[in-house]
Amino acid sequence: MKTTQQLSLFPEIEDIDSKNEIENWGTFKDSLKAPVHRWFTYPAGFSYKAVTHSIQRFGVTSDMIVYDPFMGSGTTNLTCKNLGISSFGVEAHPFVYKIAQAKMNWEINYQEAVFFIKKVEKIFIEKLDEIINKKGFSIENFFPELVIKCYSKNTLEKLYLLKMILETEELSEPVFNFFYVVITALLRDVSSAATGWPYIAPKKLKPTSTDKEVLVEFIKLSYQMLQDIRNIKQSSSENYDKSTHNLFNADSRNTKMFIEDQSVDYVFTSPPYLNNFDYADRTRLELYFWGEAKNWKDISDNFRTKLITSATTQILRGDSRYILLDEFKQECDKITDFIQNSAYQLAQLRKFKGGKKSYDLMIIGYFNDMYKIIKDIYRVLKPNTKALFVLGDSAPYGIHIPTDKLIGEIGVSIGFGNYKMEILRKRGDKWKDNPQRHNIALQESIIILDKQ
Ligand SMILES: C[S@@+](CC[C@H](N)C(=O)[O-])C[C@H]1O[C@@H](n2cnc3c(N)ncnc32)[C@H](O)[C@@H]1O
After folding, report:
1. So where are the chain's domains?
2. Cα of 75 to ligand 1 centre, how many Å?
3. In angstroms, what is the span from residue 181 Cα to ligand 1's centroid?
4. Nearest by Cα to 199 from 273, 284, 314
5. What is the pTM of this model?
6. 368 lines ligand 1 (CB under 6 A)
7. Whose CA is nearest to atom 16 of ligand 1?
8. Which of 53, 113, 71, 107 is nearest to 446 (CA)?
9. Could you read off the pLDDT of 135-177 as tens digits, one per residue?
């Protein structure tokens, strides 16, 4: 049994002020205004309000456990902590995981943090000139070209010094992680190039930030983020510190080693949308700055391969991962033909289209991976529970792939009782006038799977 409703989401909750609010639930807009949530601008993130409303709507209480298999920057887990509800979170991208981990730690030693800020100030005043004027010192030796192009020499020298101080001071782990996020947040703020998401354009100047002074911004942001911790604690349920949160830098296709069967009461998540972001590439500036990757190969080997297939940049043609799994064909026979026909059409179109994008293989890889993850979610959920997915559909080369309905169908095929789809917003209008793009109306929705 399945039903589709438009904008009827969460009608039982009275304080939804408008349709506009629901339209933003699949985006990070609300979260950018909320303490701690806003520490890292993660455009792949969703609204903490969507998590709160759904938890209230489905009566999730403090004796239950919520799970987000695509934790990202931790919106679901942070919201749960705020409400005093325990959670699990799994994130495969090591850098994004670190951000979530830091946002979940509210017990950082305030004195230690303030001491570090003052130490940074002192070193900047006393040692900066000495370090950068040292014979043989050249900032170009420390970073890949992309980083060098995004900053003025002076700004990058100061960012380098901040990084050095963080890496050499002996700090407790929570304080280190906190300042790792402070400095990360500064990176796009003080760049002189257009480093906004999703694309970095090193040649394009961003006049608004040319005069931002690294030390001033660092001090300002550090205190603002310390204040955020105080604010979030004050606004939280009095039981927030009794809730437990187990976060894993791991692959949600198989969590058997660390999440037990039937141990979860509720899932709220948002998988990578098909053909939307290449999460490894989008974090290139941060990975290069921290020395966690030095080139495209590092990004591919150490980050891209860990993530589920959702972008053509991840595809190596000829890899057996891009053949539809036999188990998928057996269990999800109702949608197998649709997926294979779509892949066939995309393979035909690829022959004539510029760019020769591997959309044909991407969709097979995506549904193979989502199948494994939905099966794992089914395994960890207790009976009489729900799994909610915030999702967008897509239309590569103009072939509509209704990812939302297909995820619902996979769920029902592997054992969920039914699925329901609630539409959050129509999207993709900006492409209407672009002759290179399709004119298929896309949408963002929530799929609700019921485990009986
Ligand atoms: C749409 S984002 C989720 C954002 C999150 N809701 C937030 O508010 O920050 C999807 C996330 O899934 C992660 N991911 C991709 N493949 C994964 C896998 N196999 N296991 C766990 N996480 C994965 C990506 O790195 C990305 O951070």
Report:
1. 1-20+313-452, 27-269+277-310
2. 11
3. 18
4. 284
5. 0.93
6. no
7. 307
8. 53
9. 889 999 999 999 999 899 999 999 999 999 999 999 999 999 9
